[in-house]
Request: fold
Amino acid sequence: MKQIHMAERAASQPPDVQGEADPRRIPIDRVGVRGLRHPLQVEDRSGHRQATVAELTMTVSLAHDTKGAHMSRFVEMINELGEPLSVRSFRRLLEGMTERLEAPNGEIEIRFPYFRQKHAPVSGVASLMDYRAAFIGRRHDGHTDIWLQVAAPATSLCPCSKKISEYGAHNQRSEIMIEARIEDIIWLEELIEIAEGAASAEVYGVLKRTDEKYVTEQAYDNPKFVEDILRELAIALEADERIRAFRISCENFESIHNHSAFAELARDKDKDKDAALR
Amino acid sequence: MKQIHMAERAASQPPDVQGEADPRRIPIDRVGVRGLRHPLQVEDRSGHRQATVAELTMTVSLAHDTKGAHMSRFVEMINELGEPLSVRSFRRLLEGMTERLEAPNGEIEIRFPYFRQKHAPVSGVASLMDYRAAFIGRRHDGHTDIWLQVAAPATSLCPCSKKISEYGAHNQRSEIMIEARIEDIIWLEELIEIAEGAASAEVYGVLKRTDEKYVTEQAYDNPKFVEDILRELAIALEADERIRAFRISCENFESIHNHSAFAELARDKDKDKDAALR
Amino acid sequence: MKQIHMAERAASQPPDVQGEADPRRIPIDRVGVRGLRHPLQVEDRSGHRQATVAELTMTVSLAHDTKGAHMSRFVEMINELGEPLSVRSFRRLLEGMTERLEAPNGEIEIRFPYFRQKHAPVSGVASLMDYRAAFIGRRHDGHTDIWLQVAAPATSLCPCSKKISEYGAHNQRSEIMIEARIEDIIWLEELIEIAEGAASAEVYGVLKRTDEKYVTEQAYDNPKFVEDILRELAIALEADERIRAFRISCENFESIHNHSAFAELARDKDKDKDAALR
Amino acid sequence: MKQIHMAERAASQPPDVQGEADPRRIPIDRVGVRGLRHPLQVEDRSGHRQATVAELTMTVSLAHDTKGAHMSRFVEMINELGEPLSVRSFRRLLEGMTERLEAPNGEIEIRFPYFRQKHAPVSGVASLMDYRAAFIGRRHDGHTDIWLQVAAPATSLCPCSKKISEYGAHNQRSEIMIEARIEDIIWLEELIEIAEGAASAEVYGVLKRTDEKYVTEQAYDNPKFVEDILRELAIALEADERIRAFRISCENFESIHNHSAFAELARDKDKDKDAALR
Reply:
């Protein structure tokens, strides 16, 4: 009965060009869709679901003897997504994708703005802060790696400028990025707190004058180069056993130049066990 | 009583530098915040509330004798926003802003990705399509103008390429933009439908093979230059009495060049009554 | 002879679809090419020719009874450009374009990075600084307007933060934009100097430690809101008789927030003669 | 003698904060400058020097016991650059940087628009085409790797759409990227020709109608998925012994969707000798 239905379908259906054989003997690492935008809900630490808009890249590996991937299946999966994004549901999505595309390997990147309510340090006034966040999953030969990423804006104040100047010190907005391969559940909020804790001062949506005085003086009391910020991040991430590898960076949008100061560091606890101090 | 309260406040509060006098006699057209990101709900035509993430610019005019605007008030207003975005609530937000900042003139731009469920033309498969949308409001000397903007992706197929070639015709993704000053309620969906209706074919999130055949042939049957797309938009918008002015553009990301074909047209029905045919 | 040649050409040439008649009676304000990249030489104040890479938009108006513009002519004109860009050659290019496209109105925007050698304030070390610059020309009904635009990075230091804090003051990179309609020759360098002169301090490519001390203290001695920067720009541009109209803006990429402070002001000396103080 | 000079310098100079010791025992992989713009000349295959504007990232590794890198040295090196960019001069720049910053490891990325004159396929009309190009160098423990990168726009026409439709086929602009680790001199032009040769058709700055007919039919005769383009690139790069490793990708800006089709493949001939067919 099913066979008859399939035969009828075949008669009325256009041919499956992607499913044809390919003679060139070149397997492809990653093929899929990119720049796909979709509304999503993300589970946050407080148990709420935060509504956001994501941009997705979804790819699978392609065997050397198959002509093409079935691109519409990626988009269908996202349109069928019935649950909010969490580490658990992301893992299911990734593993489901490799099954549905019949591929041994697959990768998903979901990038989205993420918000957190913060309270101004003196007045306590509440406002939302926006962060760039991402879930990045890689499934390879039956093994799945999950990476979380956050990019947090913050204030950096230059230690050199402070030391050499009679008064004042140049400071600027920085972007602190943490990408962590996790073994257990970690909340985006935890990574954000680590990022913000490494800066000269945090940034906020709303600051009253008493708060502005506070963060100005706090930054001046707490000067940091990009290198300092990176080292404090590394120490914090090194100490967290749930994090098995990390890639961190800091970019200072220098207020005295038209270019950035930048630093980057990668560490894989499982691979680099002996390489912490080179 | 109020004066006493103010005096106490002044004692404990840092001085209000923005509120000082300015002697330079230069009024400023627009001062405020830009690049502010915030989650929002938008009322859609079906009566639902769509969750999205907006980027806002909020400005007011500043009198020649005042030193500065109180920037935190703009951000506070967005953090206090208790209702979904609609033409009505947007008007209230704009008028409330000029009151709160004590300014005769003010402008708000709220830009956000907007989604609409579409059904593939043959299979009927449902998927979401993303659009760029904006509410733009300008309050000037007691009068408020509200503009809605949508930018819709679509397919354009070149009439020249089709006519001169034995077979085939180059086609590409285009972006069709409509910005309309409205007098009554108009839904973003209505502008999107006008935009998509002017193209060679619509684009979709998911297309099955029967749908891909349909849109391929539809585009080939329906060749359009940027100029054609613009003229069909103009005719449709001209006919809608709720729209008092419009600015429309179309950009074709040419598949045979590394630059775009582009066309633009502005019309103010109230000002240009005699100027439709130059 | 020429007619025979033309007839032969017509026989062997594909039809001119763009040149066909259009019955819809909709004239188009602007049609042409966008996102066209091309290397250019720009004449600088010192008499040298600076090599840069430009991005161009070139459009003309289209009569209501013509189907389309001949897009390749825009690109041909840029490929044939034999002289460096200056106010004079830009005017010729714009007027030549409207002739070649047989259109009454036309517009050209040429945007490019522009460099200027600067000397650090104490050490005198030389380095290049980059600016965003543009030539914008509009020809309408036989009259040509030329606008020059520069966007200069600079340092702004917050007067409120300085006044309310025991020590330190938040500061950040700003972008100061001047767009000027000119009647005579004005060099981009002159606009850049006006822009940089209105900031708390200038930014440089290379600063030695003695210079860093200097600019840090200079910014602290010279606090400015976006409003202050705008007002000083307005005073300088108002005084220059070669400038007939201007649009200026300043955006501070706040170091204590994740959004910008922004101000904008437009002035047309010929139109607003009585409106300088509202 | 030198010591006395240093002592005098120290007396008049502000302290070297970057050169201080750091106790945290965290070495940093990469620290330096990012987003630095500078005009450059690039040697092209024809022996000419092409003027362009580059954006640079320059970083070095930092030992665990040093507080910070001397950022101004990176910028000084670029301001002192006296020769056009070529594979040879780039290698010298990279090795000079690690010496000047006294670091074992260092990386430089120089990204710039690159132009090539092309002749339209039938009329022979000449025009410039723009590409994104980059030199990427990594020096690690005394060994230097040089990568060249080009991203070329091209036309792709969908094999599935062609096969299933009665007439027409959707096509679009694509971007084909090749990044190659080279052992000998390879010209950017050679990589561009490989990239363009793998597409359904090349794109051009100027096409006359006879050319437009040609490329329209050529693309229709030559349908390619992203996967096909990638496989043809891989075959060509595999065969070139001067290329020791490559990373290639293709992104199709689909004309029937608002997202891209994307494929990517990496290969290291020295490492993957047995892994060509997985």
Confidence is low (pLDDT under 50) at residues 1-11 of chain D. The helical segments of chain D are 2-12, 71-80, 87-100, 159-164, 188-197, 209-220, 226-238.
